[in-house]
Structures are given as C-alpha cells and as structure tokens.
C-alpha cells in the first residue's frame, strides 16, 4: 500500500513543456511514475520525447513519448489520469488548480511557490468542494518509493520501507529520507510551508494510521502557526502508531519570517519550544537535529520489535 500515490496512479503535468516541468517530468519518469500526459492549451496535439535515465547507470535510455493535451479534462478522458502535478507560474496557478478541480481530478500536487495567499485560499476551498485533494502549494510533492513520484523529491536517496513521513520542509524531507535510507519509506509527503496549504499534518497522520504498511510516522514541522500543536492533539486522541518529531527553527529570532511564508513567530506562539512541548506531551519524542531524530526513529523501531517479539 501507499498513501495518496501508488504505482497505479496516472499522472498529468500542468506546465510540462516549461523548463522546470520538462526537467522534473524526466525525473518522475525515471522514478517509474506513470506520466500519461502534459497540459498546455497552446501546444495541444503535440508530444514530447524524454530520454529517461536507466536506474542502473544514470545514462539516457529509451525515449518515452508523452502527449500534450489542451486541458486537464481532455487529458483525463484520454488517459484515465487521477493525479496532476502543477508547475505553472504563480500568476496562473489558481486557474490551473481550478481547472483540475473542475475536471474532477482526485489529487492536485502544486509545486509552484510564490502564489498569493488569497489565490491559495480560493483554490483550496474550490478544490475541497469538488472533492479534489490538494498538496501544497510551495511543496516538493510526494513519493511512494519504488512506486511513483509526483513532484521534485529525489527518488534515489531512499528505498521502499515502512516509515511514513510528513513534512513542511522540502530540504528536511530529503535529509530524513537519506538518514533513514536503510529502513525505507512507505510514502513521504511534503505538504509545503505556506500559511495556507491543502493537505495538513493531520490529514497525513490519519492516512498513515490507516495504512497497514506504515509502522511508524516521522512528523517534521517548523516555527510559525499552530499546525504542529493541532497535530499533537490529534496524535494524542487518534494515532496508535509511534510518531517521532522534528521541529526546525529553535534558534530563530522572534518576530521574523524565517524561510517559509508561514514561519512567523510572535511571542511564545509558534515557537519551536512550544511545538516540541506539545508533541512531547502527546508522547512524541522530538529530536534536536535531523540526525538525532533518525536515531530516535531507529530506537523506537527496535523497541517495537522487541515488544512484539519480531
């Protein structure tokens, strides 16, 4: 099993013919993602050939031809796509997500950063009403290692396993994936660090709790807002699987925006210390560094193994 994304997922790429879209479509294909089409109304009817690297040597392999459709609806009708990855510029991102939601796509992964907050609020509400799950914006996407990769997460830094990961930070997503590469992951979800995101820590915790192939969850947060405090309350009341946390920003000065647009600290609200305390009160050990967090994961897995006689 996997969370939100699996080997059966059929992926469209809105903005595939742009520079970033081309680069990351090639990488997604190399990871085994079933990319079934791009979307660009000005280039409808064309196709793009991608020389996809062979996993064994990194060299170019057999070209993969991906058709370009004029709309998400057209792409879905032709291919059965159920996922779209959005690489369009910020000014056009709202329209892209609204189009995907109108078409009835199940999952929209919005990689674009710099989207105005009022645009994000509008398309999140619209997508929710249409039944489309949005991940992002300003996120690295998600990966179910060995199955599918929708976004910009490097596919070669880990392997399939039984850890679930949900993170605000793209960089820390990659680091924890690498630190725990010998154990491996079921699914890693980068939810994005903007003030308004579609899929939350809680959404991912609920999905991992229900996933029979996820044994432990790593939750990565950062300063600003109260998402981690709300996640702690949810863990206390609803999650029976072990959770290990990490919070970025212990040295951040108050009243400053640090990195992501949502990472703003005011007084004691939103601080790393407050978030750490909330998680630990819910029984979640919190590492002081990514490496320490990885050690906590290994220790918790070993404790679970001993407890169950595995």
Task: Describe the protein's architecture and organization.
Helix content is about 35%, strand content about 25%. By secondary structure, it is of the alpha/beta class. The strands form two sheets. Strands 3-4-2-1-5-6-7 form a seven-stranded mixed β-sheet, with helices on both faces. β8 and β9 (about 150) form a beta hairpin. It is globular.
For the structure shown, list the relevant keywords.
310 residues; seven-stranded mixed beta sheet; 14 strands
Brief description of this entry?
This protein is an alpha/beta fold. The chain has nine helices and 14 strands.
Topology of helices and strands:
Layout: E1 10-14, H1 19-30, E2 34-39, E3 47-53, E4 60-69, H2 72-79, E5 83-86, H3 90-103, E6 107-110, H4 117-130, E7 133-135, E8 141-144, E9 148-151, E10 160-167, H5 170-179, E11 185-190, H6 201-210, E12 216-222, H7 227-238, E13 243-248, H8 272-281, E14 286-287, H9 290-308
Parallel strand pairs: 1-2, 1-5, 2-4, 5-6, 6-7, 10-11, 10-12, 12-13, 13-14
Antiparallel strand pairs: 3-4, 8-9, 8-11
Order of strands side by side in the largest beta sheet?
A: 3-4-2-1-5-6-7
Tell me the span between the first and last alpha carbons: 21 Å
The total of helices stands at 9
Report the count of strand segments. Answer: 14
Shape descriptor: globular
Please give the radius of gyration in angstroms: 19 Å
Low-pLDDT runs of 5+ residues are none
As a percent range, the share of helical residues equals 25-40%
What would you call the structural class?
Answer: alpha/beta
- Written as H for each helix and E for each strand, in order along the chain, the element string is EHEEEHEHEHEEEEHEHEHEHEH
Average residue pLDDT: 92
Oligomer: single chain
Q: How large is the share of residues in beta strands? A: 15-25%
> What is the makeup of the main sheet?
7 strands, mixed
